[in-house]
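Hi there. Long-time user, first ticket. I'm pasting a complex I've been working with (about 690 residues overall). I'd like to know whether the download I got is complete or cut off, because the file seemed smaller than I expected. Thanks.
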Amino acid sequence: MKVEPDDFEKERERLNRLVLSYAGKNIKRFFALDSSVYREGALDRKTKELLGLVASLTLRCDDCVRYHLSQCRELGITDEELEEAMAVALVVGGSIVIPHLRRAFEFWTLLEEGE
Amino acid sequence: MKVEPDDFEKERERLNRLVLSYAGKNIKRFFALDSSVYREGALDRKTKELLGLVASLTLRCDDCVRYHLSQCRELGITDEELEEAMAVALVVGGSIVIPHLRRAFEFWTLLEEGE
Amino acid sequence: MKVEPDDFEKERERLNRLVLSYAGKNIKRFFALDSSVYREGALDRKTKELLGLVASLTLRCDDCVRYHLSQCRELGITDEELEEAMAVALVVGGSIVIPHLRRAFEFWTLLEEGE
Amino acid sequence: MKVEPDDFEKERERLNRLVLSYAGKNIKRFFALDSSVYREGALDRKTKELLGLVASLTLRCDDCVRYHLSQCRELGITDEELEEAMAVALVVGGSIVIPHLRRAFEFWTLLEEGE
Amino acid sequence: MKVEPDDFEKERERLNRLVLSYAGKNIKRFFALDSSVYREGALDRKTKELLGLVASLTLRCDDCVRYHLSQCRELGITDEELEEAMAVALVVGGSIVIPHLRRAFEFWTLLEEGE
Amino acid sequence: MKVEPDDFEKERERLNRLVLSYAGKNIKRFFALDSSVYREGALDRKTKELLGLVASLTLRCDDCVRYHLSQCRELGITDEELEEAMAVALVVGGSIVIPHLRRAFEFWTLLEEGE
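Hi, the file is complete. Here it is re-exported in full:
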């Protein structure tokens, strides 16, 4: 059940290549747009990754959560900042979010250990 | 269909009083917790309201969106910051978010006009 | 915004007739099944209506909530029993459920007044 | 509660203009992409509109459903074809879809009457 | 794919400890509230666990389903009672619930065998 | 993580037998209905399987997606047709669909290799 950050990243890249091998221009444009919205702008990168993280938690997508956690880690988001974003996600999304919260904190710990 | 900010706020308060007239201690605690997670902490109020807004948009709850828009307005969030948070919500949540985006921008305009 | 129980019931019946005027055998079978699962069995009617109510609240469907509230009322479910089921729905589903909780308690009050 | 097709279309256009007056390039690109995926290709327009309709019904977005119903009508989709797509949406999405099915068939009737 | 009840319980406890090691007072309060709503009150424990189960099935969270199944088992809920609650969840939530129903009945069987 | 089509099919059949061993008449009727809506009618089988696929993708159920992919494959749906249906699902459902899209294209590749 434990997902190692390196394995996660490799699998994600392998499957993205597979998707793009099938993708026509609409799917390709969506992928470009999906990178574009997290770029620095009026809101900074950290805020945008936290937005992506909380949206992913309340929509309950573990892979999306793991991806945003990696980005949060690289941007230097602290444990305290993360915990507060998690608390917002938990209260908005309810107890159904808890299993995702468990896996999220485990992945966060593994990211920390891997540094 | 147009929801005026003042009417929205009055109706919300009226119905919150109704809920609390029925509420036992668990529902009351939930309401307290729901206020508590948006308080200033390691993350500032603006970031937390944007987290609440994006979660509400991707979960597609117009009333929740309107509430967070009011808070964003009071905290001085700019049109540009709002638009970027909206773009994250749209890309994460997909075209199904668009009708909520429409109503959100209309409410934002009404908040602006009411100042 | 206030939905009167009588209007709700009439509109629901009018539109059900409309759906059934278009429905082939699959949609008709689904409607029959939808009545069948709430019938008395190993679980009593009250429990089943509460199951329908909590599922409708966490999936956030106001019309479904109103329908199950009417049934709960007819079956003599008390304010205390209702409040506890609502608390489960709120904690499982999170703050995104609150606007539906507000409308649910208002409808419950109107059902009470109409007696 | 009854939504007239003409009013729906005007309101949709008015609010789309409002969204686009705030939109930066990411939201604009999303809107372009949202038109692009329904264009004739390996799958024909009718199939694509039915895909959009069923996705909108199972995700339970009335405005999205109404939009796709208008498109289905213009493309000459018959009552029988519509009913079968509706049946798939109902079985996949469950009874929680029923209130949306009611409003969908009402809008379909109004589209028919307006011709 | 088969999840053994003992492994499930141990993993759940291990990860709950991890979450609580990061948790500030809001997340801790949420966890307390999440226990509190299932306590005996105007509704009995069995009814409340069935409410939690059906909400978890319609929101499609396997871990939440497994937790409530364990509780249902301990409270002496019978196969017939369980099946009827499952049928409500299936009809409300639709065929998208079926994969979760499969895993739920398998876990229920394993709970039975472990006694 | 890679799910082989043969293993998937066997596991699905094993668990369906388990569900049906517990099922009363309501669950059995639902299963019958779930087969019935995909039968040839005013809409052909290919269109109906694509409807089921897109609904499953936007509701984000991997097992449902895999089942409909198998059916699509048997019905001779081409890579281009599949990609266009996927693009609709992605735009309607948003980036949260991407992890499911990855697993869907992998399963599609495995179905192709198994022929």
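A couple of notes from our side: Chain E is about 75% helix and 0% strand. Chain E touches chain B through nine residues (CB under 8 Å).
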